[in-house]
Design goal:
The complex is a heterodimer of chains A (about 150) and B (about 90). Chain A has about 150 residues and is α/β, with parallel strands linked by helices. Chain A has helices spanning about 5-20, 65-75, 95-100, and strands at about 1-5, 25-35, 40-45, 60, 80-90, 110-115, 120-130, 135-145. In chain A, strand 6 and strand 7 form a beta hairpin. The longest helix of chain A has 14 residues, at about 5-20. Chain B starts with a strand and ends with a strand. The chains are: A alpha/beta (about 150), B alpha+beta (about 90).
Chain lengths: ~150, ~90
């Protein structure tokens, strides 16, 4: 499986991590699933991080934002295909917290490491289910010119 | 009356691959009951064994969290839309 994303959107989500440094950024990937389970991102929607108690190492997206994004995506014939967040001064690998709090089976979870304010690595992980036995699997990111 | 329920992508495999399902209900609780009656595989993904919504499942009536309304007893009308969204969180 692969996550295909236009270069401008890929840059957008990486820059979001720089803008919120040293706090974690977060947002939603809107796009389409193809017949083989791959995904193509059509829009990146930046969200606020509601974890104001611990924004340097935690993120949470307001469900009300998710409701609005999902509704607008469906009206456009798209779906929520994944999410992104940053790891300030920490590797671009999923953590135990990331897995425990991930519930969108088959969606992509994109993580960008931001070191001293600069986005470094961006990796994607597909959440595989079921919920009781979920796991992340490395997912190839294909960046295309737009 | 018939109202719409929007199904998020991870739950669609248990809902006949549909993104929107029409249910008959007078309240949010009835709507969710009708939903799982039509699609029994959804039940364990929405509710825990004690019958409560799972902790990471959010249910909205239009733009309002039902937790801030009257929860299951919240009345619905024909133009309403119920949206189910699992939570999104994490961190390093």
């Amino acid at each position: 499986m692969a996550l295909t994303i236009p270069d401008v959107l890929y840059i957008q989500l990486r820059l979001h991590g720089e803008a919120t440094y040293p706090h974690e950024c977060c947002g939603v990937l809107v796009g389409v699933f193809d017949e083989t389970g791959g995904k193509t991102v059509k829009a990146v929607v930046s969200c606020g991080n509601t974890r104001t108690d611990s924004p340097a190492n935690r993120y949470h997206i307001d469900p009300e934002e998710l409701v609005r994004i999902q509704r607008e995506a469906m009206l456009a014939g798209h779906d929520i295909v994944g999410f992104y967040h940053s790891h300030p001064d920490h590797p671009a690998r999923w953590s135990a917290t990331d897995l425990a709090e991930a519930h969108w089976i088959d969606c992509s979870y994109v993580i960008t490491s931001v070191e001293r304010g600069r986005a470094v690595l961006t990796n994607s992980f597909q959440l595989l289910g079921p919920e009781e036995n979920k796991r992340f699997e490395d997912e190839h990111i294909v960046v295309i010119e737009q | 009356m018939s109202i719409k329920v929007l199904i998020p992508t991870p739950l669609r495999p248990y809902a006949g691959k549909q993104s929107t399902i029409e249910v008959n209900a007078q309240t949010v609780g009835e709507a969710l009951s009708d939903l799982v009656a039509r699609h029994p595989d959804l039940r364990r993904h929405l509710f825990s064994e004690d019958g409560r919504l799972r902790s990471f499942v959010n249910v909205y009536l239009n733009d309002e969290d039902i937790g801030y309304l009257s929860k299951d007893a919240t009345p619905v009308k024909e133009t309403d839309t119920i949206t189910i969204v699992p939570s999104v969180a994490g961190g390093r």
